[in-house]
Please model this.
Amino acid sequence: MKNRFGLFIIIIFLSFCFVIFYKGLNTSNNYTPKVNEKRNIPTFKAKDFDSNSYINSEKIFEENIFYIVNIWASWCVPCRTEHPLLMQLSKNESIKLIGLNYRDNFNNAKKFIDDFGNPYSRILIDKDGALGIELGAYGVPETFLIDKNKDIIKKFVGPINQEVVNEIKSIIK
Amino acid sequence: MNFLKILIILFLVTSFSELRSGETNDILKNKILKNIRCLICQGQSVYDSESEFASSIKLIVDRKINDGLKEKQIYQFLREKYGDWIVYDPQLNKNTYILWLLPLLLFLLGGAIMRKKLKFKN
Model:
């Protein structure tokens, strides 16, 4: 009777371990903490991709509309998959897309835009990734939705998909 | 001649103090970087990591130190951007109070059990 009980306990313990490890296989390796997303956009100065001159963040987000800040790079493969969706979003008149070209080579970035189209109303250069950190970004691609009060209201880590596009459209409606 | 000597001494003293301040800045920078978690790496601090994220954080910390920000202000800046998770030493707040109080509660509970057992034996 005692042996049977011991065996039962061992089986329960092993099943518990199996479930924990099996669940662990399906979850992401990186823990993404929940950060209070709603915060005002930081004030910064950035180099404009086209004019090569510095511009203030107040000037970039001066209109009373929604903005999307998308961090991208020509070397980033997932950026290519999300690009058609950004092109789709850029057709919406109640939103403006700002591209943040992250740690990229200018000629490669230009070729990327020439090949795949330009969804951005303005592109900023983030040569060393410092601007991304000011925004609270993890890497590339990453997308921020900014409302009319100039608050970051949503942050999408990784390439956006149709679901995200629909969510953005429902927010800016 | 004396004036020249004084000038040389002044020059040497100022350049030495600049070197010292650069050195202390480096020590502070390394201390901060060792206390910051690399959010896209597994179990690595920003100091140990060579990822894009880590190198950008290193640059930002360097700039903030040069701007005259104190250690605590830099941690606060990073917390605002990435939450408490970015620092290895979490502050006591409503999200972390269990983390801080649980060991104390377990210690008190253990003490209470031991006391009861000892009393029972006596």
In short: The interface with chain A takes residues 39-40, 42, 52-53, 55-57, 59-60, 63, 80-86 of chain B (CB under 8 Å). Residues 92-122 of chain B form one domain.
